[in-house]
TrEMBL record:
Pfam families: HAD_2. One of its GO terms (biological process) is DNA repair. The lineage of its organism: unclassified sequences, metagenomes, ecological metagenomes. One of its GO terms (cellular component) is cytosol. SUPFAM superfamilies: HAD-like (SSF56784). GO terms for molecular function: phosphoglycolate phosphatase activity. This is Haloacid dehalogenase-like hydrolase. InterPro entries: HAD-like_hydrolase_sf (IPR050155), HAD-like_sf (IPR036412), HAD_2 (IPR041492), HAD_sf (IPR023214), PGP-like_dom2 (IPR023198).
Amino acid sequence: MADTLGRTHPTIQAKADNAATGPVRLVLFDIDGTLVSTGGAGMKAFGEAFEAAFGVANATEQIKFAGRTDYSLFREMCRHGGIDCTAENRELFFSHYLRLVDSHIDASKGGPFPGVVRMLDELAAMPNAPALGLLTGNIREGARRKLGAYGLWDRFALGGFSDDDEDRNLIAAAAAAKGGEYLECQLAGPEIVVVGDTPKDITCGKHIGARTLGVATGGAT
């Protein structure tokens, strides 16, 4: 079977870390390496945006992106580049980033990973379907542009983003709280499933007591 990009579906290896007990009411997905590949659009835009904002070239050369949050990446780049990590500089940087990431997404040959669209369809069609949300290190607007480019943004009712916190564990807590507000209940940890492709995704899921599912589609596997 081929996906929407005409590629052959590989076997996606996944493992549930926690025993399944009781109903799942909220499923939270990472984006990059889990739902979609953007051909490195975010990483390319980060480097170019830092140079555009502060005149510092090659700022991403020694930075590891997998599982990181946008705000923590910006802080590390500032440290390496000798730039003050202020709210004003962060706003300037991300204004350039959002302008540049669009062009890199448009130029990439990325898209949803094989099986993602079908999986989302099947989850939505389940009796007592769980709410679908995002748990990502992207800033919200960056997430919207990445998923919107492939028609996936409107599939998700809520999300935790780097705008919520620099720490991914606290982003997970924010996403869980938003899920409870959306469902008008207080969610227990095992009622939530966190899906991601890096150890950091699994760690933040465990932080909120959620069940966790690791997928072998990203660079960490």
